Amino acid sequence: FLMERKTHAKINRKEVMLAKLRKSCSCTPQKLKNFVMDFFPVLQWLPKYQCKEYIWGDVMSGLVIGIILVPQAIAYSLLAGLKPIYSLYTSFFANIIYFLMGTSRHVSVGIFSLISLMVGQVVDRELLLAGFDLNDDAPPASGDGSLQNDSLSNTTAFNLTIAGINAECGKECYAIGIATALTFVAGVYQVLMGIFRLGFVSMYLSESVLDGFATGASLTILTAQVKYLIGIKIPRSQGHGMLVITWINIFRNISQANLCDVITSAICIVVLVTAKELGDRYKHKLKFPLPTELVVIVVATLVSHYGKLNEVYASSVSGAIPTGFIPPKVPQFNLMLRVAVDALPLAIVSFVFTVSLSEMFAKKYAYTIRANQEMFAVGFCNIIPSFFHSFATSAALAKTLVKTSTGCQTQVSGVISAMVVLLVLLFLAPLFYSLQKCVLACIIIVSLRGALRKFKDVPARYHVNKMDTLVWVVTMSASALVSTEIGLLVGIVFSMLCIVVQTQRPRTALLGQIQDTGFYEDDLEYENLSPVPKVKIFRFEAPLYYANRNYFLKSLYRLTNLDPNLEAARRKKYEKKEKQHLKKENHRTANGLGIRETTLQLVPKEIDFQALIVDCSSISFLDTTGVNTLKEILKDYKNLNISVLLACCNPSVIDSLKRGGYFGRDFGSMQEMLFYSIHNAVLFAKDHK
Q: Which of 228, 420, 572, 604 is geometrically suited to a Cys-Cys bond with 441, CB 3.0 to 4.6 A?
């Protein structure tokens, strides 16, 4: 039977587009109110805030995250190649802006190790091109922590045109100028992606690509911190192959290791790892996680200060961290042009991590987020803070898990965390002057445990899906051995190539009938299947398009053991030989010269089926080449008196076949060529032998 298709009214796309344009361009008070409410989601949920129910969890989680943020902010400044004060600025402003604009109740937005690494690589490159020395291990200038003393500690100057005035800018000034320009451009990209609704870009970053990228970047981060762990002074490597070059320099200078830093690092790593493992094991008994990083930083700072480790053992310390806020400054346009290309992968990675975490926790706690608004939120978390000497931000998994485990209910907890950071900014920052850099490096390395544990998951990942494991390995290797940006690009391209390869050489099978049923399955995979007499059923498990056309034909000919073109040529040759022998027999009636034997040698191959059924249930679409391929096999098998029947075609495939003229001009033979189940096609083939 042939099912009757519904007739759909034709849509005038021009009218639809004009109507949407008129609606979007119109401005009414209600529409303006809705726009403001949508753009600042805090206006929707804050008036409904249930203070008695939510406030305790938000305050506790906010305090815990704030306590964790301070040491992480100071530590991640090493990755970004900037002073610790700028990391504190970043943490403060990101929490405030996401509180106003974010739609997730739980994610923690702020500094993130991978983002800090990507910023730091651009900063180092531009400093090197500008002629600055990348060695940041010079003894810090002593001072009272004021902004003036900190800014005067730069000894190398760089002439920079600011608002038409030629101003002198030192290394620190130029570094934060590069970081803010990069952050501003990344934020602009994210806002533009939100305006043009380009959130679908994140779909091309699969879980294997993201995990491989994170693991490869973690190896790079680990490598960059080793010199601080052992207290050697080597130049910060730049460009491709940074990981290998850095390790070569480390082994060349290993004899210069600072014994004080080595001992401090060993103690800190043991304490941090032990505390983390105990916290993971007994997390169900703890109401909130242990503030191990803060304890380690406080104790290490006191020991370093009173033990005078910098003066006596030449241990590298953080130096003066100013208090208060530096006056805002517009990011430099000429620097934006230099980093415009670098900002694109930064924008995509920042957005993808934020949205993926937001969706994960929204699903877990049964509420919804708006991905497009998340793009605006993270975009303005980059644009606005860039005027206040901050760098790029993103959501971070570790802090978000801590946030949820300590009772977070809304983003009010982010405001509490920002207040903790503000307290450090205004009063406590100078107290970290004597903090050793090796302690900060230990905090960074221990925070990478989650990403580095992905190596343990490789066998399980390989068991689940070999192709995904290959994508993970390639992305991780490229991110670690070449560069993070190249690694991300390689991962995306390689994962897409893997999909193309899988559609180019998909599974193919001949089907047999499950006994006493109307169902059919792969006879190589299942036992006790019955072949259908005089019928071959072929399944192709992929779209049929130009890239896999040849594989489709080769598989069909191999499994059916019949190439219709070769068989047709063999028959023509047989007919031609037969005619020649008949002519010879007419002229030579006296004696036949083995005509019967020659004829027997040229007898065409006996074909064991009279109908070919193509199971199209796995063919999601056809292009022009795919339609022409089906028309070709229809014609070729028809020449051998074999009928070709299609089964289980979806509506889009049927439409493609109609447009391609597969069923003829008037579709009269469609009922005899197209079937809605394999069993119907088999019954038809048996009835029309």
A: 228
Strands (E) across 416-565 are located at 508-514, 520-522, 529-530, 534-540
Is the pTM of the predicted complex or chain greater than 0.70? yes
Supply φ then ψ for residue 158, to 5 degrees: -140, 125
Q: Are 576 and 604 in contact (CB under 8 A)?
A: no
**Whole-number Å distance between alpha carbons of 523 and 559:** 11
Higher pLDDT, 515 or 164: 515
Alpha carbons 7 and 21: distance in angstroms, whole number: 28
CB atoms within 10 A of CB 533: 11
Instruction: Report the C-alpha gap between 531 and 600 in whole angstroms.
Output: 30
Q: Which two tokens stand for residue 501?
A: 């390869």
Q: How far apart are CA 180 and CA 330, in angstroms?
A: 9
Domain with CATH 3.30.750.24 in the chain: 508-573+607-688
pLDDT band at 139 (very low <50, low <70, confident <90, very high): very low
Q: What is the pLDDT of residue 136?
A: 55
Output phi, psi for 509, to 5 deg.
Answer: -160, 155
- Say yes or no to pLDDT of 161 above 50: no
Q: Do residues 86 and 390 touch, judged by C-beta distance below 8 A?
A: yes
Are 656 and 511 contacting, i.e. CB atoms less than 8 angstroms apart?
Answer: no
Is residue 622 helix, strand or coil?
Answer: strand
Secondary structure class of 171 (helix, strand, coil): helix
318, 433 contact by CB (below 8 A): yes
Q: Hey, what CATH topology would domain 508-573+607-688 get?
A: Transcription Regulator spoIIAA (3.30.750)
